[in-house]
Amino acid sequence: MPGRREIIGVLGSGTEEHRAWVEPLARWIAERGFHLLTGAGGGVMRAAAEAFVAVEGREGLSLGIVPGSVEDGTWRPKPGYPNPAVELPILTHLPLSGERGTEPMSRNHLNVLTAHALVALPGGSGTVSEVVLALRYGKPLILFGPREAFRDFPPEVERTESLERVLDFLTSARGESPPSSV
């Protein structure tokens, strides 16, 4: 891909991996030459980054927005961050997450604003806050996974259990013709 690579953000649980959903998505992102952006933690974030970096010959990088804080003049990442599959950690002084994920001191703003398009997998209050921010900032977003997992998410966001639909969505968000196969 000539020029600037686009960034696809994958959002989701920091504890549950949802590998059956996230791995084929992350591989597709890698195979298409995009960068992958996650919140640099465990769960979906780690599973996505691991599947992404496992793709041989990929051109994009695994980016991770790392929450952190400054204590006694020393920056410290949130414990467990970044996961080992993050190739380019983007360090922040932003410690808030979860139910406080829409507040100004949350890295969720960077997660959402940095990506060209976003796919949210099942997650808790932190993922919901990222979805709310994506709507606030007008970012292309789709929810991917079992429909019942998205009960607490804003109702206006498209939900799908189809990987093909997600890939079509990402392709359309970029203005390309749809992929010929998954």
Q: Gap between N and C termini, in Å?
A: 19 Å
Name the quaternary structure: single chain
Question: pLDDT below 50 for ≥5 consecutive residues: which ranges?
Answer: 177-182
> What's the overall average pLDDT, rounded?
94
| Spatial order of strands in the largest sheet | 6-3-2-1-7-8-9
Helix/strand/pairing category: alpha/beta
Number of strands: 9
Q: What is the molecular shape? A: globular
Main sheet properties: 7 strands, parallel
- Percentage of residues in strands: 15-25%
Radius of gyration: 15 Å
Helix content: 25-40%
Q: What's the quick description here?
A:
By secondary structure, the protein is an alpha/beta fold.
